[in-house]
């Protein structure tokens, strides 16, 4: 996918690496590092909410 500005990979303890990206039209993306051609797509606000939930420990059961 072109036009996505990918951040550096974030890697957890089990070496699960993810990348977060945004595009100029306001969409946000999250993908497994190395699989950026198959990202999940949503709004930037939805991505912010996901990150806030993870930081607050509200998504630990998903990890």
Automatic annotation (TrEMBL):
Listed name of the protein: DUF397 domain-containing protein
Annotated organism of origin: Streptomyces monashensis
């Amino acid at each position: 996918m072109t036009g996505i500005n990918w951040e550096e990979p974030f890697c957890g303890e089990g070496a699960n690496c993810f990348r977060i990206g945004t595009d100029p039209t306001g969409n946000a993306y999250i993908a497994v590092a190395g699989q950026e051609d198959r990202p999940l797509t949503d709004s930037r606000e939805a991505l912010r909410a996901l990150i806030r939930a993870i930081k607050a420990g509200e998504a630990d059961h998903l990890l």
